[in-house]
């Protein structure tokens, strides 16, 4: 038993609500930036290459902090770690629009990304502890709230801009909302955040390495739909550019619905069947998009990818909490880092492969990867 275990009772309803709020904040905060990227590009007169480097700063900040975030949770507890990261995120949000120069924007994006990286890891540490105490599947619902937050954040900024607000006012208002939600969750955040005294960072090992590899494959697939679905529909299926974006919308809607209903699915089918069937359904979705000649079939394929992938990653985080190869906080940090690397590196690698072969062939590799995930489902989910 750790010091934190003795200091507070077992997590209950208040902690479950707070965990959902923090996941909502994570999706909400990161998504407010997306609609404002064109404004930042125009303000600082960035060309496409410079913008790409700016966006890379956000990802690099996250990846550098994620491996260390588990150690922060163990040393300071989930509550202090989440509150500190959340406060920094709320400060960075308006600063994204206030940055007067390219170096300052790069710095703000790096700090924003680092804070998001800490939040991503520690909220999953809290989620693992809360789910374990509840004795039932809860992780899909937590991750579903992240998706809902993403829709609310991007939609809130876009709606505020449509009403005539300035970019600074739009994101400033969203930062205030995030801060209020963070304060409301405070009492339900866990004082504890780890399994006793351990190093701040160790390399993933044992089943954690396998769980992290599955997350890498699933996040890579998600990133591929985000970055390449519209390009695929327009360049390969000759879809109207005005409607090609609905490929990602279809994916996001089915994924969100799948996660919000996923706890009952996991409870009914079990972790192994959810990962096995989910990976195969996602593989079938990519296969449909690649082989069927119509744009409508492509939309249906990407919707299938979302439905299949929805609950695989939440189940993997639960598995990271159950394994005994590594302490929970370090395992969750490792799995989060490996998964995020899939989002950060995967789509760029697919672009390189597509240039050498074709975009359809590059997406076809994801089918192979998802079938591989299905093949290791039993090993990845066993207790």
Automatic annotation (TrEMBL):
Record-linked Gene3D superfamilies: MFS general substrate transporter like domains (1.20.1250.20)
InterPro entries: MFS, MFS_trans_sf, MFS_Transporter
Record membrane topology: Multi-pass membrane protein
Keywords per UniProt: Membrane, Transmembrane, Transmembrane helix
UniProt key word Cytoplasm: no
Compartments in which it is found: Membrane
UniProt keyword Transcription, yes or no: no
Pfam families in alphabetical order: MFS_1
Membrane spanning residue stretches: 21-40, 52-74, 81-99, 105-130, 142-162, 168-185, 206-225, 245-262, 274-292, 298-318, 330-353, 359-380
UniProt-recorded name of the protein: MFS transporter
Native source organism of the sequence: Pseudoxanthomonas japonensis
Species lineage: Bacteria, Pseudomonadati, Pseudomonadota, Gammaproteobacteria, Lysobacterales
């Amino acid at each position: 038993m750790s010091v934190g275990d003795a200091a507070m009772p077992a997590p209950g309803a208040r902690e479950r609500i707070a965990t959902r709020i923090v996941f909502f904040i994570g999706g909400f905060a990161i998504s407010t930036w997306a609609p404002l990227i064109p404004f930042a590009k125009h303000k600082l007169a960035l060309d496409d290459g410079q913008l790409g480097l700016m966006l890379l700063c956000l990802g690099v900040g996250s990846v550098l902090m994620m491996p260390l975030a588990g150690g922060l949770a163990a040393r300071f507890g989930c509550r202090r770690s989440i509150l500190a990261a959340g406060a920094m995120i709320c400060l960075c949000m308006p600063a994204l629009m206030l940055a007067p120069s390219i170096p300052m924007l790069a710095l703000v994006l790096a700090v924003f990304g680092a804070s998001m990286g800490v939040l991503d890891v520690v909220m999953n540490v809290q989620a693992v502890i809360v789910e374990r105490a509840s004795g039932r599947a809860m992780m899909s619902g937590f991750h579903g709230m992240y998706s809902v937050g993403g829709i609310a954040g991007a939609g809130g900024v876009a709606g505020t801009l449509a009403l005539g607000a300035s970019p600074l006012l739009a994101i400033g208002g969203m930062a205030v909302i995030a801060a209020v939600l963070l304060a409301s969750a405070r009492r339900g955040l866990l004082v504890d955040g780890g399994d006793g005294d351990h190093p701040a960072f160790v390399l993933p090992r044992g089943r954690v390495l396998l769980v992290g590899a599955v997350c890498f494959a699933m996040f890579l697939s998600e990133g591929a739909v985000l970055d390449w679905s519209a390009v695929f529909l327009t360049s390969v299926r000759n879809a109207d550019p005005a409607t090609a974006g609905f490929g990602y919308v279809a994916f996001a809607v089915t994924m969100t619905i799948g996660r919000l209903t996923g706890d009952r699915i996991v409870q009914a089918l079990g972790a192994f069947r959810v990962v096995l069937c989910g990976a195969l359904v996602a593989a079938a979705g990519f296969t449909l998009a690649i082989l069927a000649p119509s744009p409508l079939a492509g939309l249906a394929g990407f919707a299938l990818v979302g439905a299949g992938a929805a609950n695989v990653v939440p189940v993997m985080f639960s598995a990271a909490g159950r394994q005994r190869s590594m302490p929970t906080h370090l395992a969750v940090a490792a799995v989060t880092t490996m998964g995020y690397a899939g989002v950060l590196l995967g789509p760029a690698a697919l672009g390189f492969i597509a240039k050498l072969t074709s975009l359809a062939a590059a997406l076809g590799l994801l089918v192979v990867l998802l079938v591989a995930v299905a093949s290791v489902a039993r090993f990845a989910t066993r207790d």
